[in-house]
Amino acid sequence: MSNEQDVRSMGGLRKYLPVTFLTFLIATIAIAGIPPFAGFFSKDEILMHVYEHSPIMWVLAVIGSMMTSFYMFRLLFLTFSGSFRGTHEQKHHLHESPASMTIPLIVLAILSAAGGFIGIPEALGGHNWLSNFMSPLYDLSRRVRPESFGETHLSHSTEYMLMGVSVGAALIALVIAFVLYVSRKSVPAPEGERLPALQNLVYNKYYIDELYNNLIVKPLMLLGDFLYGVFEFFVIDLIVNGVGKAVQAFSGVVRRLQTGAIGFYIFAMVIGIVVLLLFNFRGFIL
Prior knowledge:
This protein has 286 residues and is mainly alpha-helical. The chain has helices at residues 18-32, 38-53, 55-80, 88-92, 99-114, 129-142, 156-183, 197-203, 208-255, 262-285. The protein has two domains: 7-188, no CATH class; 217-285, no CATH class. It has ten helices and no strands. Helix 2 packs antiparallel against helix 3 (55-80). It is elongated and about 110 Å long. It starts with 17 loop residues before the first helix and ends with a helix. The model is unreliable at 144-149 (pLDDT under 50).
């Protein structure tokens, strides 16, 4: 699968890349925020403080975390479950990565699975060890009291409710992804295929790139072309080239006075003296 980036050409890689599959599964569960993996504790901390400041923002954050869970499990199922959708030549060369890649993956997977236990919140019987450890740094950077780092005024029952909603949203997204991409064996449509309006909107990232290109990039490009073709050519170039040509023409005239004839130089000197005398005499009279 070297240089292959399209998951639509993958599938069924679990039996060919078992170590990669297991580490990817652990990472997916952690990112989705499912306990007891590290992502659950970090996401719970973030969502708890968001809820404390704004319940509306908390709802949006939960929706965002649910979407994260969905697309991560979608990626997992499309890549490692089902049957292989690539070419026969690609299937012939499928193999596990070398130790130089799998060992770092295993280390990261272990940290993803067990790293969250150093920051267990008080609501689950922990002591916020990580929060207390980081308090001095937080105090120096934010100028707040060390004991205020990580503190919350929410009751344990409220924390349990927030955890339950967060985990429930992640599990619902997991089930939806499983039904779509494992049970129904759905595969995203290939490039260029006509999609329903809503899917097309999401597939094209809400046309943000096109909107940015039409509202920002193209007007700036047109402005740049105008400045280059009109202002720079008719103003900048004319001034610069005009000054250069004027200096060149004047120097061409002055250069002709350098004839090398001593008689001409004496004549020019006499004319100059006469002009100076006349100018001084006129100034004396005035």
